Amino acid sequence: MDIDRLKAQVSFITEIDKLKQVLRRTITIDQDRNENDAEHSWHTATMAFLLSEYAGEKEIDLLKVIKMMLIHDIVEIDAGDTYCYSDVDQQAKVERESRGANRIFGLLPGDQARDLHALWGEFEAQETAESRFAAALDRLQPLLLNFHTGGKTWKKHGVSKEQVLKRAGPIRDSSPVLWEYAERLIDEAARMGLLCR
Amino acid sequence: MDIDRLKAQVSFITEIDKLKQVLRRTITIDQDRNENDAEHSWHTATMAFLLSEYAGEKEIDLLKVIKMMLIHDIVEIDAGDTYCYSDVDQQAKVERESRGANRIFGLLPGDQARDLHALWGEFEAQETAESRFAAALDRLQPLLLNFHTGGKTWKKHGVSKEQVLKRAGPIRDSSPVLWEYAERLIDEAARMGLLCR
């Protein structure tokens, strides 16, 4: 047994417990509380294997997509969640997340640190079929939660239909079927008055 | 687009949001609050791909193990979490969980309902290498959390070293390396007074 290797892996596993404390703006469907990043990661990873038939690009590596969903927000332990409709300094956000990736993935043994850093970088770069499908799920999940909570978060932050359509863009780019569904849902949300004009 | 199929999938995806409300006895490392099943499922799924090298049986299907971790507790939306050291009626627990599986997996289109029901059944039956490794992770994760929270839950419920060793049995059955690590951790916990005599 390479005890140093296993200890490094366990130190990462206990460190990422903090993801359960990183709150998102989205609220859970049946509870009036904010969802956290660990819950969101579980939800999108589960969606990945239930909805993989809708990935528009053929031959996606489902295991890679699920791994991406599981780790895509880990950098937010250091960088914090950035609300998608807020006016943030993108360069500062990228730098915060990059430092977070270096520190947190760096807890792992070298080979796994490189693998996870590369997987996260692939997700961020949006240049592969897997990362595009992962991004589609990352956008579809809060859309479902916002719709099924009466648009509470949208109303609170004055979010418009145009903003939601733009934010959902990665769904269009990756999956025609999920995009058709998402567009209908956004139309219905607008008709129901869940979005600001 | 087969809209009925997609609607069934979405109804399952929104239903399982309730897993975020099923509280476990384990508490999160940095917060004084109970972990929920969605967080636990994310944590163990992530552990699956970080620790798969330690699966004692060769040729495990990692994608299957991760899928198992993601869905293994979904039946608890209906059946509730059963504390592992409580004196419960096992037969009643099995029946509750079976009814939960029928209802919740039954929301999915037929093929996926059968697949997920079978995957959950495989986890419960503990007859395959994948289900045994999944069970090992399901036991190792709360062990790590309990150790790193000063055994708070163990102390509260008067749990002994013998009980924890017995509960950790699936780790021994699946992974010699993780078992060696777990045994050391339990020994240390006992020396530190985190467990009852």
What would a concise description of this structure say?
2 copies of one chain form a homodimer. Helix content of chain A is 65%, strand content 4%.
Outline the structure in words.
- The structure is a homodimer of 197-residue chains.
- The first copy, chain A, is mainly α.
- Chain A contains 11 helices and 2 strands.
- Chain A has helices at 3-15, 37-51, 62-71, 76-79, 90-105, 110-125, 129-148, 152-156, 161-167, 169-174, 176-191, and strands spanning 23-27, 34-36.
- In chain A, strands 1-2 form a two-stranded antiparallel sheet.
- In chain A, helix 2 packs antiparallel against helix 3, helix 3 (62-71) packs across helix 6 and helix 6 crosses helix 7.
- Chain A is globular, with a radius of gyration of 17 Å.
- The N and C termini of chain A lie far apart (61 Å).
- The relative contact order of chain A is 0.13.
- The model of chain A has no long low-confidence stretch (mean pLDDT 95).
Shape of chain A: globular
Which two chains touch over the largest interface? A-B, 47 and 46 residues
Describe the sheet with the most strands of chain A. Answer: 2 strands, antiparallel
Helix-strand category of chain A? mainly alpha
**Uncertain residue ranges of chain A:** none
- Strand arrangement, major sheet of chain A: 1-2
Helix content of chain A: 55-70%
**Percent of sequence in beta strands of chain A:** under 5%
